[in-house]
């Protein structure tokens, strides 16, 4: 009996879960090691810690997991033994704070709530309020502050630096997740050498698989199932937006259309890239010349808005000696909007995965060809009616 990982991950997860909870003969005496190498102010790390990592604390899964947090990531150790953090000095400081919290409360059930609280503040761009976590969690602030001020925190960070730099294979990005010594790559599959650890990729029989690798695959299948940030079980559709920050058409698209991919989970299937350059030109002296002919008009209109007099926006044409007709014709013609409305359908068409994308089956995301067919049918029906009326006359 053979199994396909991609199409049957949910089935595997359920089978593993049932076997784990029901049969004492297959109980996991040795826990699965799960290590997270991260940086305190890395947005991807905080997203993972806040939105995905807590799932292992549900349904008793933490009972088979040995979780270790390592706050160092891409930080560089300088020749004078100082730290150069990827997100500045504030990150270096918060890394030390979190290292001290882990040291002050070695029990995962005590230090993880603090890490989660601090990273939640990072996630919501309010990390300067990290000290409020002590009061929220009824923790003794002095244990951590003494550690930070005494130099103990720096010693801990040096230990984390050595551990991170000794990773084999070396970490490539953060968050870097390692299960039983094997990193979970961001590609669609585990590297060949890792299939010995997770033999599901060799299509082995389920009986042998459950007996030998229950604990490892149980964790791995769940992580893949919830689609955390380090793994993608389906190949995503790439969506790139090349734009200019002060372009009215661009801001209209970003504000009114682009957010649709964040609804109903569609973003899980889309790899969005934003490129703020547009029609900007590089000058011979390596300076930039931006397309700013429209800025005086935008400034004029926004000034009226600022002074609560926006109904007088048309006066800007006369003030700046601009042709009003170019703008009014554009507004009246609805130029450009149809392509923007259709971009969801292009995502749906480009997707090659097996899992259904939320939003692709709705009436709002019909493909252009489908709409064209509907319009064509309507026209044909209208012509047939006209022919019949002409014949009866």
Automatic annotation (TrEMBL):
Q: Which PROSITE patterns match?
A: PROKAR_LIPOPROTEIN
**Record's family?**
Belongs to the GILT family.
Subcellular location(s) of the protein: Secreted
Protein name, UniProt field? Gamma-interferon-inducible lysosomal thiol reductase
What range does the record give for the signal peptide? 1-28
Report one GO cellular component. Answer: extracellular region
Gene Ontology MF terms: oxidoreductase activity, acting on a sulfur group of donors, disulfide as acceptor
Please give the superkingdom of this protein's source. Eukaryota
Q: Which UniProt keywords apply?
A: Glycoprotein, Secreted, Signal
- Cited Pfam families: GILT
* Principal location listed in the UniProt entry: secreted
Which InterPro entries does the UniProt record give?
Interferon-induced_GILT
């Amino acid at each position: 009996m053979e199994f396909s990982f991609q199409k049957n991950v949910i089935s595997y997860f359920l089978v593993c879960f049932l076997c784990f909870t029901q049969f004492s003969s297959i109980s996991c005496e040795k826990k699965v090691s799960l290590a997270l190498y991260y940086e305190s102010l890395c947005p991807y790390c905080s997203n993972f810690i806040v939105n995905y990592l807590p799932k292992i604390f549900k349904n008793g899964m933490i009972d088979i997991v040995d979780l270790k947090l390592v706050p160092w990531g891409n930080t560089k150790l300088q020749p004078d033994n100082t730290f150069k953090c990827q997100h500045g000095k504030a990150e270096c400081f918060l890394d030390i704070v979190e290292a001290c919290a882990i040291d002050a409360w070695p029990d995962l059930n005590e230090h993880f709530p603090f890490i989660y609280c601090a990273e939640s503040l990072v996630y919501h761009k309010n990390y300067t309020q990290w000290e409020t976590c002590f009061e929220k969690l009824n923790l003794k602030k002095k244990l951590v502050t003494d550690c930070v001020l005494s130099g103990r925190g720096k010693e801990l960070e040096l230990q984390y630096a050595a551990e991170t730099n000794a990773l084999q294979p070396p970490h490539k990005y953060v968050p870097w997740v390692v299960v039983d010594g094997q990193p979970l790559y961001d590609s669609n599959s585990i590297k060949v050498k890792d299939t010995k650890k997770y033999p599901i990729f060799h299509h082995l029989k389920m009986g042998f698989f459950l007996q030998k690798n229950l604990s490892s695959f149980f964790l791995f299948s769940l992580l893949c199932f919830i689609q955390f940030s380090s793994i993608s079980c389906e190949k995503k559709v790439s969506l790139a937006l090349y734009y200019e920050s002060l372009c009215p058409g661009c801001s209209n698209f970003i504000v009114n259309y682009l957010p649709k991919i964040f609804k109903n989970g569609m973003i899980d299937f889309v790899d969005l890239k934003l490129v703020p350059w547009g029609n900007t030109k590089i000058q011979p002296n390596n300076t930039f010349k931006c397309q700013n002919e429209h800025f005086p008009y935008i400034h004029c209109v926004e000034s009226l808005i600022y002074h609560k007099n926006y109904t007088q926006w048309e006066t800007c044409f006369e003030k700046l000696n601009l042709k009003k007709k170019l703008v009014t014709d554009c507004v009246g013609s609805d130029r450009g909007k149809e392509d923007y409305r259709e971009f969801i359908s292009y995502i749906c068409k480009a997707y090659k995965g097996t899992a259904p994308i939320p939003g692709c089956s709705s009436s709002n995301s019909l493909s252009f060809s489908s709409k064209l067919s509907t319009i064509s049918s309507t026209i044909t029906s209208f012509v047939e009616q006209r022919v019949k009326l002409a014949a009866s006359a």
